[in-house]
Specification:
- The complex is a heterotrimer of chains A (128), B (113) and C (251).
- With 128 residues, chain A is mainly alpha-helical.
- Chain A folds into two domains: 16-78, Fumarate reductase/succinate dehydrogenase, transmembrane subunit (3 helical TM bundles of succinate and fumarate reductases), CATH 1.20.1300; 89-128.
- Helix content of chain A is 72%, strand content 3%.
- Chain A has a two-stranded antiparallel ribbon.
- In chain A, helix 1 runs antiparallel to helix 2 (53-63).
- In chain B, helix 1 (6-35) crosses helix 3 and helix 3 packs antiparallel against helix 4.
- With 251 residues, chain C is α+β, with helices and mostly antiparallel strands.
- Chain C has two domains: 3-108, Beta-grasp domain (Ubiquitin-like (UB roll), Roll), CATH 3.10.20; 111-249, Fumarate Reductase Iron-sulfur Protein, Chain B, domain 2.
- Helix content of chain C is 33%, strand content 16%.
- Chain C has nine helices and seven strands, in the order ββαβββββαααααααα.
- In chain C, the strands form two sheets. In chain C, strands 2-1-5-3-4 form a five-stranded mixed beta sheet. In chain C, strands 6-7 form a two-stranded antiparallel sheet.
- In chain C, strand 3 (69-72) and strand 4 form a beta hairpin.
- In chain C, helix 6 packs across helix 9.
- Chain C is elongated.
- In chain C, 42% of the residues are buried.
- Classes of the chains: A mainly alpha (128), B mainly alpha (113), C alpha+beta (251).
- Chains A and B meet through helix 1, helix 2, helix 3 and helix 5 of A and helix 1, helix 2, helix 3 and helix 4 of B.
């Protein structure tokens, strides 16, 4: 018998549109663009900080532009999405076995959310 | 089959993913509040300069920026591939160079403070 | 059986005949389904009453053999576990499992998976060879728990159908093969990790995975291959740093 298996091609550029879970994945991956950009914003802040008070205040002034606010809002959404997607899968990547049993995944996730809240409050108080 | 050298970058990616998950949202809130004049005592030259002038402060800032950069760079490399660009080597050179440049600049600026 | 429990379902099935077709086509069958039926029952009804030429694989009808993996409304499913009552619309699309070449109708060619699975040596490679007379290899319940979940894999390949990285990079070793390697690596009786690492720690091994997590979402046996792959990445990364930054740690 002459067999010629049929191969279904998958689009290299639009594959993720085919299922909601792939879109969620891509949303998670795209957060890195904002993390990258925001980290460079911090580096610019450091540069201006090293140049003295006037330069730093000019930087803060520039942040207050509509574009600056908009970028920060977008970065905030991306950063929060990254954090949640990261903590939610931690039990899969780093399971903890205590004695015989593995610690329930939701305990590990909740512990991360709790620590996240503490770290965030420390940073906010430091920033105030 | 040879063992991959991807662990170098993946190690930094994973470390950075964890660190950014914990600190980045709050850091963005600080700059957002400063941008929105939410609290004028926030993100001032004195407070930031004092922190960045302290050796441990320098170390913390350098650590956060280092792993954030390498986390984002590695994930961006994968994302570009996911969007259909088949030039992994070139993409890797570009994104890791950006991360390397950012790391170097951070070091220079921190030493000047 | 009362007629009231029956529901007429339009089953849209992808057909492909390698001798006559150049591309697959859909054929719709109207099937009088009982509410407690699964998609596999509907396919069997077609085969028995409507169209004996329809080809598909199945065996156990109880989610153990792993042969009836298919795309049901675009989702990788075991046809024997996809209940008709979960599809309210009255129309169900059935296609061969994604990411594998179609041999005929719903039958795919699975050689690629079989080759990859064999390449990770998915069997115990004892740490120490000892004669049967020396007794059994003992294992504590805690040691068993470390890998028990991965033993539940039935090689149904739904995880390969869900994995976009496997779809885009066919060289990728894939979820089930790597979780199976992890299963033996986690086994206290096993000493074959170094041999398996040669395969799974390569570029085409675990490093093609970007933790989409789709494999674990579709796994009918809750094996969580995505978790296994991340654990393999963590372990391989520790290996790499030990080998390159702390060469004195080498065995």
């Amino acid at each position: 018998m002459n067999s010629k298996p049929y191969v279904r091609e998958v689009s290299k550029t639009t594959w993720f549109l085919s299922h909601p879970r792939y879109k969620r994945y891509m949303a998670r991956e795209v957060t890195c663009i904002f993390i990258f950009a925001y980290t460079f914003l911090l580096i610019v802040a450091l540069a201006r900080l090293s140049q003295g008070e006037e330069a730093f205040n000019a930087f803060v002034q520039a942040l207050r532009s509509p574009l600056g606010v908009l970028f920060n809002v977008a970065a905030l959404i991306a950063a929060v999405y990254h954090s949640m997607s990261w903590f939610d899968v931690t039990p899969q990547a780093m399971p903890i076995q205590m004695g015989e049993e593995f610690v329930a995944g939701n305990i590990i996730v909740n512990a991360h959310y709790g620590a996240w809240a503490v770290v965030s409050l420390i940073i906010l108080f430091w920033g105030m | 089959m040879a063992k991959s050298n991807k662990p170098i970058f993946w190690g930094l990616f994973a470390a950075g993913g964890t660190v950014t998950a914990f600190v980045t949202p709050a850091l963005v809130l600080v700059t957002l509040f400063a941008a929105m004049r939410f609290n004028m005592d926030m993100f001032t030259y004195e407070s930031i300069h004092a922190f960045a002038g302290w050796w441990l402060g320098k170390l913390i800032i350098f650590g956060i920026i280092l792993v954030s950069l390498w986390h984002a760079a590695h994930r961006l490399r994968v994302t570009v591939h996911d969007f259909g660009v088949r030039a992994d080597k070139q993409v890797a050179i570009v994104v890791y160079s950006l991360a390397g440049l950012g790391t170097l600049l951070t070091l220079i600026y921190l030493l000047r403070i | 059986m009362s007629e009231l429990q029956k529901r007429q379902i339009q089953l849209e099935v992808l057909r492909y005949n390698p001798e006559t077709d150049t591309a697959p086509r859909y054929q719709t069958y109207s099937v009088p389904c009982l509410e407690e039926w699964v998609v596999l029952d509907a396919l069997n009804y077609i085969k028995d009453h409507l169209d004996p030429t329809l080809s598909y694989r199945w065996s156990c009808h109880m989610a153990v053999c792993g042969s009836c993996g298919m795309m049901v409304n675009g989702e990788p499913k075991l046809a024997c576990k996809a209940f008709i009552h979960e599809y309210k619309e009255g129309q169900i699309k059935v296609e061969p499992i994604a990411n594998f070449p179609i041999e005929r109708d719903l039958v795919t060619s699975v050689e690629d998976f079989i080759t990859k699975l064999a390449s990770v040596k998915p069997y115990l490679i004892p740490k120490e060879d000892k004669p049967v007379s020396a007794g059994e290899f003992k294992q504590t319940p805690a040691e068993l728990k470390k890998f028990k979940q991965y033993t539940l894999c039935i090689n149904c390949m739904l995880c390969y159908a869900a994995c976009p990285q496997y779809a885009l990079v066919p060289e990728f070793l894939g979820p089930a093969a790597i979780s199976m390697a992890h299963r033996y690596n986690q086994d206290s009786r096993d000493g074959g990790r170094d041999q398996r690492q040669e395969v799974i720690a390569s570029d085409e091994g675990v490093w093609e995975c970007s933790f989409v997590g789709a494999c674990s979402e579709v796994c009918p046996k809750h094996v969580d291959p995505a978790g296994a792959l991340q654990q393999v990445k963590v372990a391989s990364t520790i290996d790499w740093y030990k080998e390159h930054l702390m060469p004195w740690m080498k065995k």
